[in-house]
Amino acid sequence: MEHWTFLTNHGHVLLCIAADPEIRLLDVATSVGITERSAQRIVAELIEEGYLRQTRVGRRNQYEVRTDLPLRHPLEKDNPVGTLLQLLSRRPAATAGNKSQ
Length: 101
Fold this sequence. Notes:
By secondary structure, the chain is an alpha+beta fold. The protein has helices spanning about 10-20, 25-30, 35-50, 80-90, and strands at about 50-55, 60-65. It has one domain (about 10-90): Winged helix-like DNA-binding domain superfamily/Winged helix DNA-binding domain (Arc Repressor Mutant, subunit A, Orthogonal Bundle).
């Protein structure tokens, strides 16, 4: 049986960054099970589409997730990214997701 999951790698990367806005892309790649280059490409796409903001802090990057933007698929477009992040966050609901907008 082929291995599959309910979320795309883009969703997994976004979850990792929402949980730790200062996470290294190598750590994102390891958590998601993709190459670092793939993680870089996905982050670049998320930035290009406005779902992430990137700020350089010293030698590291810090990310901000735009939780107010809608999910991209037509079936989910009425739901903001923040709803997905809150639902799938490992943190308690009161502090789930990045509240940044």
